[in-house]
Design a protein that fits this description.
This protein is an all-alpha fold. It is built from three helices and no strands.
């Protein structure tokens, strides 16, 4: 059961990152993760 919950959490995180990468907004990702998903990884640290 724990493994299934872990996989579900992993899938939800991947979906949120994909959504943010396409210009959407999500509270389940950090600002750094959102910037990386958008291809702005270097700009988030500045």
């Amino acid at each position: 059961m724990t493994a299934a919950q872990g996989k579900l959490t992993e899938a939800e995180k991947a979906h949120a990152l994909e959504w943010v990468g396409h210009g959407g907004e999500s509270t389940s990702v950090t600002p750094d993760e959102a910037a990386q998903a958008r291809g702005e990884a270097g700009e988030a640290a500045q």
